[in-house]
Design goal:
By secondary structure, this protein is of the alpha+beta class. The protein folds into two domains: 96 residues, Rieske [2Fe-2S] iron-sulphur domain (Rieske Iron-sulfur Protein, 3-layer Sandwich), CATH 2.102.10.10; 186 residues, Naphthalene 1,2-dioxygenase Alpha Subunit, Chain A, domain 1. It is built from five helices and 18 strands. The two termini are 18 Å apart.
């Protein structure tokens, strides 16, 4: 009998589905020196060339397994600090100073990964095997359209990243947990919900209430999984439309999650400048206070809390998302199971 502890589907979801883009850190995390990042069930070394171009390999030297991040970046390659073995960004060993001409030279012995920088973050394509060309990184319009302005909010929360997914796919918690917020004090304390399918995912929304509170959440798959919601803003929130939050969440370990939220508004010209000034000087601290409420609740939940639930109608979105992610994991595992059989 399979349990959560030995379920291969759960194990895959715990470390992140393959062949998807994930945000792994803010851009400022990687400067002139190689950086080691534990994400998605493994350690990566990420570094920049002098031009700023990014590269990523598994943080593992094929010679003796030393962390490549302890070595020296040399343009498009990195020299291991243990024995000087040079590994190129495509995973090919180009030089073994201690034993020139040995069979290690010329071998593609280290996993390589594609990385791309956008919207103030570094994204990594979590490929199941080495690929020469990854699919395009397709982000929502709020992060690519110049008519929108955004700020990246990055933090790390203790616990499984899937609790963060559940939290965002739960608009009703805003009415209670965040009821003292300057932007979530309105609306009914009871609601019926529905699921509306889209071409790239689905929307979980309150029936008969829109632009009043945190009234809906969208989940989407565009080669990267992301979530979006809107919160109506009072006039004291400055120019622009609703306050939009785009989120994407990455497992660091089973007990730590990388939480990426982009806070966005649609505006241009002087209104954009006004909004950005107002955000940094007045609104950002309020938003962190709201986020802190979520963090405290999630970090105090037991690791097996989602195994001992009694769900009701407000939780349809969570059930829908969990089932969909399990189907994606099952599809990725199917070729391995067929081969084993």
């Amino acid at each position: 009998m399979r349990t959560t502890a030995n379920d291969p589907v759960d194990a895959l979801l715990a470390t992140g589905l393959k062949d998807l883009w994930y945000p792994i850190c803010p851009s400022g995390f990687v400067k002139e020196r190689p950086v080691s990042l534990r994400r998605l069930g493994r350690k990566f070394v990420v570094w920049r060339e002098a031009s700023g171009k990014l590269h990523a390999l598994e943080d593992h030297c094929p010679h003796r397994g030393a962390p490549l991040s302890m070595g020296m970046a040399m343009g498009d390659r990195i020299a291991c600090g243990y024995h000087g073995v040079q590994v190129r960004a495509d995973g090919v060993v180009t030089k073994v100073p201690g034993s020139p001409g040995c069979k290690l030279e010329g071998s593609r012995s280290t996993r390589s990964f594609h990385v791309q920088e956008a919207a103030g973050a570094i994204f990594l394509y979590n490929s199941s095997q080495n690929v020469d060309t990854p699919p395009p990184l397709n982000l929502p319009k709020e992060l690519t359209d110049p008519e929108y302005s955004h700020f990246l909010c990055y933090t790390e929360w203790k616990g499984d990243y899937r609790y963060v997914l559940d939290n965002v796919m739960d608009p009703m918690h805003g009415t209670f947990l965040h009821k003292q917020s300057h932007s979530m004090a309105e609306g009914d304390a009871t609601a019926n919900f529905r699921i509306r399918e889209t071409d790239i995912g689905f929307v979980f929304e309150k029936e008969g209430q829109r632009d009043v509170n945190f009234d809906w959440t969208e989940w989407a798959d565009t080669g990267i999984h992301w979530m979006r919601l809107e919160i109506p803003y009072p006039k004291t929130g400055g120019p622009g439309g609703n306050f939009i939050i785009v989120g994407s969440y990455t497992p660091i370990t089973n007990e730590l999650a990388g939480v990426f939220h982009w806070r966005c508004r649609k505006l241009t010209g002087w209104q954009k400048d006004t909004w950005r000034f107002l955000y940094k000087n007045r609104l950002e601290a309020r938003h962190w206070a709201v986020l802190e409420q979520d963090r405290v609740v999630l970090e105090l939940m037991e690791p097996d809390a989602n195994q001992r639930e009694m769900l009701y109608q407000h939780d349809m979105g969570i059930v829908r998302l969990r089932r969909h992610l399990r189907k994606l994991a099952q599809a990725q595992l199917a070729p391995q199971e067929e081969k084993a059989a």
